[in-house]
Amino acid sequence: MSTISIYNYNKTFKLENGKKLRKLEIAYQTYGKLNAKKDNVIWACHALTANSDVLDWWKGLFGNNALFNPDEHFIICANVLGSHYGSTNPLSTNPVTGQPYYLAFPEFTIRDLVAAHRLLAAHLGISTVKVLIGGSLGGQQALEWAITDNNAIENLILVATNAVHSPWGIAFNESQRLSITTDRSFYAQKPDGGLKGLKVARSIALLSYRTYDAYSATQLESVNDKIGSFRASSYQNYQGEKLCKRFNAYSYWYLSKAMDSHNVSRNRNSVIDALALVKANTLVIGIENDILFPLAEQEFMAENIPGAEFQSLKSAYGHDGFLIETDALTNVIGNFLKESVHKKIIKLHKTA
């Protein structure tokens, strides 16, 4: 078992846009023990509304009997800046006013999420990460980290993610933010502000996470005489309400903007030049019917990261398959890491 720890960064945290945060807090969880060589670190970067409990939300890939288990590895997952689950976010107290930030919270980027991760790594005495893995927003973080600090990551695993967030993805996020801002309570300076809008945003998001076939398989009516109260309608309402019980509209609004900011070529020559900076042994995994992060985006990364390997997975669930198809992920990632060890041994023999 693991409990949430809080790292308090006592210096001013400067964001990519030049704005500053005081009293930055980073919530994180660790599992297992760091070995003497400090070479057994598995760092998981979470997606948009997840938290630092990776053994909970990535069951099957992480866990006591899983590929990434606390018996062998020192597993770390940090809650991202701006999130609802313990790190500094829009509902945190602004030290200047003594009140929650709400919409006075400064906007931040994927690079700021990575900068916070790196501060935590330094605090924990970790200079190298054996495996850095993330899917979706988590994959954006992992890629940016592997470029920014390219000597620190030994193995990089990118799942259902991209090098630049697409106009299509930004359009989905903007549609969700529009739904949040049509809820007038979003501007009411209350912790539960914007929840009606957030419910709609989640409903929109689900359409990008799943597929036509997934809805046909799970929400198809069993009778033919209905003219209302359809299962698909109930499902959208249920999922929206479920998120509203565990998240806040302000964090969602800011984190979706951070996802939009993802572009590894910013202040670098080009996307291809930026990807060429990755030194980690890299595996890129895509989901064949992912409409939010289409397979072409993963193929592009694999083609331009030096020596990267590419694998595609079939899933009925579209983008959400990266959280669901853990048996397939275990097989693909397990084989990749075994091959990585083999390559490392051969390299050592050649240099001996």
Give the secondary structure arrangement, pairings included:
Elements: E1 5-9, E2 13-14, E3 20-21, E4 24-31, E5 41-45, H1 54-57, E6 74-78, H2 110-123, E7 129-135, H3 137-148, E8 153-159, H4 167-181, H5 195-209, H6 212-218, H7 231-244, H8 249-260, H9 271-275, E9 281-287, H10 295-304, E10 309-313, H11 321-324, H12 326-351
Parallel strand pairs: 5-6, 5-7, 7-8, 8-9, 9-10
Antiparallel strand pairs: 1-4, 2-3, 4-6
Helix pairs in contact: 2-3, 4-5, 4-8, 5-7
Please, could you describe this protein's structure?
It is found in: Cytoplasm. Keywords: Acyltransferase, Amino-acid biosynthesis, Cytoplasm, Methionine biosynthesis, Transferase. It comes from Pedobacter heparinus (strain ATCC 13125 / DSM 2366 / CIP 104194 / JCM 7457 / NBRC 12017 / NCIMB 9290 / NRRL B-14731 / HIM 762-3). By secondary structure, the protein is an alpha/beta fold. It has two domains: 250 residues, Rossmann fold; 89 residues, Orthogonal Bundle (Rna Polymerase Sigma Factor, Chain: A). Helix content is 39%, strand content 15%. It contains twelve helices and ten strands. The strands form two sheets. It has an eight-stranded mixed beta sheet, sandwiched between helices. Strands 2-3 form a two-stranded antiparallel sheet. The radius of gyration is 20 Å and the shape is globular. The protein starts with a strand and ends with a helix.
